[in-house]
């Protein structure tokens, strides 16, 4: 696990931590909740085109009409990258309704392994079987910090990055992660992120992003902020029907496909490797979460890591029969879509089993994620039941 010497990006303290033994309301600080769901959705408002298809009734996917890679790269100058606004985390409401994490998966567990840079798949492994149920008062225990910047370009950190995209004439940013692709290990070209980082569901208008690119191992503190190049979205996208049609937070997840590196011509998998993916696993897990929070008190320049265990579930009904899960995590807008990994180590990315998705106004130090179920894997597989 990470060294205790790593520091939080905005303080001299070793870590920004809420240990289980020190949980108290007094530790909330002055963090302000992000704008609500309507603000997050309104930010995504330019149409990328493409007629969606539903090869599975639970999943929508399409190939959008997007600008050429050359045009997208020309648009995203360093100045525009720096000026991109964070897509605010969805605020589900003023008051949370957390229940003990006793939910059970509705389907059979499954997993696909990650891969090494160079395009070599990792050996298939059996993901962990979960951890014991623990009950914590809010604020839930967590350990949040910025890893030493010299490690960001190392594997497996480098599978994480920033997703930039345009909407309604403005530039925005989320977080995303290279993931086992529906295209197969010979063309690992897929990123995983939140559904609200792909498609606007405000007023039921389903507006898809445009001019998007993914920068793995992004480091905004140095001139070489894109050490592996920039991977332009080629128009392929997929999300759950529940999110696309109904703004259902229990299935707020999406995937996008990208072209080759702007500098090396390598596929995403060959350049940085990719995360594994797991679904229908126990709700109680130990997670290592990543993201690039950009809203105050963060600045969007740094990769932030958060370690936390499942602290409960959100009593919310939706297409996913298993309710969303929550961990202690103080990240803000811009971190949306960043992966929650189980079985992560300093040499293996483990398995994506959630992502930074939404908060409640009364819990700024907690982060919620859809529970990854069979529909989640169907989204990753672009409508197929397996890939």
Present the secondary structure layout:
Blueprint: E1 16-18, H1 37-42, E2 53-56, E3 59-63, H2 69-75, H3 78-83, E4 85-86, E5 90-91, E6 98-99, E7 110-112, E8 115-116, E9 120-121, E10 142-145, E11 160-167, E12 170-179, E13 190-193, E14 199-200, E15 207-208, E16 210-216, E17 231-240, H4 241-246, E18 254-261, H5 268-272, E19 276-279, E20 286-291, E21 304-309, E22 312-314, E23 325-328, E24 339-342, E25 351-355, E26 358-359, E27 366-369, H6 374-380
Parallel strand pairs: 4-12, 5-26, 19-25
Antiparallel strand pairs: 1-10, 2-3, 3-17, 6-22, 7-19, 8-9, 10-21, 11-12, 11-16, 12-13, 13-18, 14-15, 16-17, 17-18, 20-21, 20-24, 22-23, 23-27, 24-25
General description of the model:
- The chain is mainly beta.
- The protein has one domain.
- 10% of the residues lie in helices and 30% in strands.
- The chain has 6 helices and 27 strands.
- It has an 8-stranded mixed sheet with strand order 1-10-21-20-24-25-19-7, covered by helices on one side. A 6-stranded antiparallel barrel has the order 11-12-13-18-17-16.
- The longest helix has 7 residues.
- It is globular, with a radius of gyration of 19 Å.
- The N terminus is likely disordered.
